[in-house]
Amino acid sequence: MTTTRLINANVIDTRNGKVLAEQQVRVQDGRIVEVSSTPLEGSDDRVIDLKGRYLMPGMVDSHVHVTAITPNFALLETLSPFYVGAKSSELLESMLMRGFTTVRDAGGADYGLAKAVDEDSLIGPRIMYAGRALSQTGGHADMRGPGQNTFEGCFCCAGLGRVCDGVSEVRRAARDEIRKGATQIKIMASGGVASPTDRIDSTQFSLEEIDAIVEEATAANIHTMAHAYTARAINRLIPRGVKTIEHGNLMDEESCRLFLEHNAYLTPTLATYDALAKEGVEAGMAEHLQRKVFDVLEAGGKALEMAQRYGVKMLYGSDLLGRMQRHQLNEFNLRKDVVPTDELIRTATCNAADAYGHTGDFGEIIPGARGDMLVLKDNPLEDITVLTRPDEQLLLIMKAGNVYKDML
Questions:
Q1: 299 shares its domain with 375
Q2: Looking at the whole model, is its pTM more than 0.90?
Q3: Which of 62, 252, 257, 394 is the most buried (most CB within 10 A)?
Q4: Which domain holds residue 291?
């Protein structure tokens, strides 16, 4: 057994939004075993003196695509999965160095990539993966153009989704992703920006198909996340048991009521629209698809304000693609004038654990939680932008008790 003790720590209590001064924290075999305001007894393999710096749990990005090495998804589906995996390693390490110790992949990552990270063959955050997102024909993960009648290349190798139609097909697809270890199932339930043949305001999958997918996820004790923009799409999903709605830019007040009634979560992804609007074409997205961004760009801020006003629980999500993933921390900047600082920190920590059904496993510095922790020079509860300057502020990164950055 290996143990590390951190002393003289100002611990960020994410659940209650306050600082616990002068704490000691012991990590043993990858888990936090003790948190105390008095000196901990016993010897440890390593003692780290934080000298009053701020200790918070590692952050969670609830909407990433770690294999999206380009925003051109049609191209992505033709690339060698070995090449995509190798390039993904660069994205993963950068995410960890920004302070994200867990990410929820919304389509593309698989068992092999997650296992390579767990074994430290690749350096990066722990990956919760959906495998391939489920899409109807002509849906958000169907990357065929209007004149293309057959799939080219291996659609299910380097791509982000799989096409399935009808109750029996979607049930089989969900079961297959669960067989391959998916920690959640992703439904493409409305039109989107990066897909060539669907409109953003469309709904996708029948109610019977949605019910079948959610039933399979529930049977496996995992949750369902759904890509959805409009109120029409969102309001048919939440009552059917979908736990998290991704994007939600065009939701309405009835959507907010349903979020509260069914204890569902919203994952706004403002950073990706901001990045796509500014540099999407330059980064590799087709110009006619990039124009679709402006259908939802401004609405995203309004949806955020509405959700905050109604008390909808939210998660931190970036959804960035290709080289634009360097803007992952910009989501804090885009939300900070609407969401109070303590709540914004919760979206990237304990809210995620709650939404996934893993309360107490991560997102807090409490006994039993994973040893995923960050040491910051300044207090993020006083200034959320502390989290957006990792080169200056992030002094230590620990995941599962292992240190990946140490500037102390």
A1: no
A2: yes
A3: 62
A4: 59-328
